[in-house]
Amino acid sequence: MPVTGPEIERLIQLLSKLPGLGPRSARRAVLQLIKKKETLLAPLAVAMADAAEKACICSICGNVDTQDPCAICSDPTREPTTLCVVEEVGDLWALERAGVHKGRYHVLGGVLSALDGVGPNDLNIGSLAERVEKNGIKEVILAMNATVDGQTTAHYITDRLEGLGVTISRLAHGVPVGGELDYLDDGTLAAAMKSRRPF
Amino acid sequence: MPVTGPEIERLIQLLSKLPGLGPRSARRAVLQLIKKKETLLAPLAVAMADAAEKACICSICGNVDTQDPCAICSDPTREPTTLCVVEEVGDLWALERAGVHKGRYHVLGGVLSALDGVGPNDLNIGSLAERVEKNGIKEVILAMNATVDGQTTAHYITDRLEGLGVTISRLAHGVPVGGELDYLDDGTLAAAMKSRRPF
User: Fold this and answer.
1) Class at the top of the CATH hierarchy for domain A64-170
2) Domain with residues A6-54, CATH architecture
3) What is the C-alpha to C-alpha distance for residues A175 and A159, in angstroms, rounded to an integer?
4) CA separation for the pair A174, A179 (Å, rounded)
5) What is the dihedral sign for C-alpha B149, B151, B154, B158?
6) Where are the domains of chain A?
7) Do B49 and A49 touch (CB under 8 A)?
8) CA–CA separation, A107 vs A125, rounded Å?
9) What single DSSP character describes residue B177?
10) Which tens digits make up the pLDDT trace of B31-44?
11) Chain B neighbors of A44, CB-CB under 8 A
């Protein structure tokens, strides 16, 4: 039985499909939105319509932007011969926020996973090989998550790019900055110890 | 430094103001929305515009609905002489979902709180007294949260309605259905013991 008007029920139902919101938190969010109708709900409706109209996926790297090619791919000041390969757009955004990569990106759109039936043809691996071959890429930085699937994918890409004369690197494993040894898993500690550096 | 287009950044910024979403989960939500542009983002924009246009607050009870008086206040089959007093609209919705109250409601819009500077005039207490006096209300059920502020407010309302010839009741305290004694606080156990019933 609906407890409120159909337009509000529909908003609750759609909002509860967002990751991180369930039916209960969607209801709380909708009440908050209606309380701040002029300052939040109305602007959000406009922002969503805007984004729905303008958001697109970059045909070169797979980034989400309001222009195609995206701002990064069309920025002439960025190093064009270094590609950072990430699983998802969210990873690209995280690296950009940190400002630690001055080259271009390539978004795979996932990882290889036998369990979920994701094979190489389901990911943007073919287009990666093509970019490396045709655009004179000198270095490919593999920035996949440090999970089993992420590392499997990294190995697969390394095999696939072999013979194209490109340097392949991966992110360092080790103790996170600010991290406490006591709370780290054995794998991380072993990696940190193995890759120790002169002080 | 923005990592994506201005329309998308603005959507992230607005979404992160929702309760339960921070900047990080708002970004994840926006990526999900853009991935499901046709099935989620566009309908959500329409639903928000609809809700912004139609949502209103019932001038009688304070419920949020798309009609004024709300569906509950204008339903002739509901017992008009029993009022259930709640703190917020979310509480009213919770009771409606449970289907445990067949009368009408009255939303206070908060609780008395000396710390937050909320006094009786900041809540819909005057309009409650007026409804009780003018509409021949026979019973007022106080359904405030079982917090210190909620119970203070309940006591204040009881004092305020004294002499109007209305029965005042409150929700029972006790062991939640499905709850385990071992995990309950002392206050709840004491209340449950004190209000024990013949079996």
Assistant:
1) alpha beta
2) Orthogonal Bundle (1.10)
3) 28
4) 10
5) negative
6) 6-54, 64-170
7) yes
8) 9
9) T
10) 999 999 999 999 99
11) 11, 14-15, 48
